Amino acid sequence: GNPPLMGFLTGVLMQLQYLGLGVIAVFSFLLWSLFRSASAVIWPVTTIIVSIIWMWGITVWLGVATSQMIGLSCLLVFAVGIANCIHVISAYFGFKKEGEEHRAALSLAYEKTGLAILVTSLTTMAGVLALTASEIVPIKVFSVMSALGVLMAFLFSVFLLPLLLDIWHPGSTSGEPSLAERLGARWKTFNTNTQIVLSIAYCAAVVILVGWTIGAYLVFTSFLAYFVINWGSRILSLLPYYTQRFPYLILAIFAAIFFVCAYGTSKLKIDSNMTELTREGNPMRVAYDIVDQNMAGAQMMVIMIDSKRSDGLLEPSVMRAVDTLQTRIESSYSDQVTRTYSLANIIKDTNEIMNDGDPAYYRIPDSQQMISQLLYLFNSANPEDRRSLVSDDYSRASVSLNIYNAGSYEYEQFFERISADIDEIFADAREINPELDVYLTGSMALLMRLADEVASSQFSSFSIAFAVVSGIMILALGSLQAGLIAMVPNLIPALLSFGLMGLLGVSLDIDTLLIAPLIMGIAVDDTIHFMTHYRVELLKTRSIERALRSTIEEVGQAVMFTTLVLGLGFALLSFSDYLGMAKMGFFGALAIFIALLCDLFLIPAMIIIFRPILGMKEVDTHIEFSKGGFA
Prior knowledge:
Blueprint: H1 2-35, H2 39-61, H3 70-97, H4 102-129, H5 137-167, H6 179-187, H7 192-210, H8 212-245, H9 247-266, H10 283-294, E1 299-306, H11 316-332, E2 337-341, H12 343-354, H13 368-374, H14 376-379, H15 383-387, E3 396-403, H16 408-425, H17 427-432, E4 437-441, H18 443-477, H19 480-504, H20 515-541, H21 544-572, H22 579-610
Antiparallel strand pairs: 1-3, 1-4, 2-3
């Protein structure tokens, strides 16, 4: 029932605390692996935690009730905040390597990344604020709360982080190699057979210690971190050459991915089944299955009849319509409905008993006076029991339906057919009483309305978010062409999750419907850093080749780092017992990694093909990259 379900969702909030600690641990491990400095780990995490505390605190001060979506708000703030910090610290270490002293390097780092951080914060806020178009209060609260958190993350990244970095300077990366780099160097000294044996032994040891699921995640995390740290620079050095050689092939591949995702999206259906948001074997899910298989069904639906006048339900035509509706439901929808019960059952039972149990009298009498007499004993019953079926003045009554547990998609079709039956069966009764109103209600009907509202609001909110983010990108880059080029790669990650879910037959629910606006808000961040750096370098060099080379070299590494951290952070949510959050974590992580490929391959290919000069004059549009890498 609903009380245990609400208890389960409360437990999800508690579990999110542990997952949050896990996300912090993963972030810390990856930041240490990437920057090899304790202050480069502690200060970014501190900045993000302070942002979340302010976001949560302000929400509580305003007296706004939160839901299980608070975990998603915290993750979004983590994502935006950690991306800001990584870009700043990456630029800081870059200037330190060039010989700049601490304060000069810090100043130059903010000069280089400040505009991009501002624009990414604005676009992410625009993306989540678009969800306020929804009529669902928890989604509105999530939208405003997340936008507030992103604002806090921006303010603290700009004002608090530099103060903390000034108190405790990050160490230099130009000295001794990191642990991952030392392991990489040592690894290359082994022959192939030894490498295979050690890899198998490592994977087996991790799986034995922590189990298959978490073990696979830890193995993937460690190997991916090793690959990015040891091979990232080499990949970035070769990327311009191969992108220049095959720009149209790259564009065709991503176009094919886009159309496949669009096709998959067309196959999606919205289907919210609360019990199936728990994992197999969960006690609550088992209980629902037992009730469905052995009892009268785990869910209930109510049909309300409102005559709008006193004693209106004693009219024989109304009671006969109720009886006919129940009979049709029990005969036509036996796969969904186990039983029905209403005032009509009381009248028919009493009529049969008062006529010596003759089955011929198990029916609705033809006169209102007879119906009133049959209900004499019923009127003397416990008022609370009586009111569960009919109001005291007999103007309103209900028909209760015990139904099997199912998803909102199946319920929606079922409700549509019943609504048509109601219109047909009550047509005669409405001729006598035109004000007669019959409608569906109950928790299942509310769930259907909720699913419909979410479906319609998500389309509008995604459209609003795309339009607003596109406008911000065009203004920030000062070029319509560049703004559109920057937005195209962000459509693919946003549609990827929906497309895969459609192709795999995974239904959308209230949680997974939020993926597209969130992913667009996160994915666009690295795109903005890429395109703003390209614009600055193009302004300085007046050469597309040199601007693109510099962008891939300097921004590419930071983009790889942020994707590694955010993608693995999202993936950690896959372990949630709440499958709505788990699906969001899995498909969200996949979309973030695809966004990296879009930034590193699709955007350079589009720049090479379309040669955007961003409204500048005397720009050298010749491009010729060598295979040897960067000069």
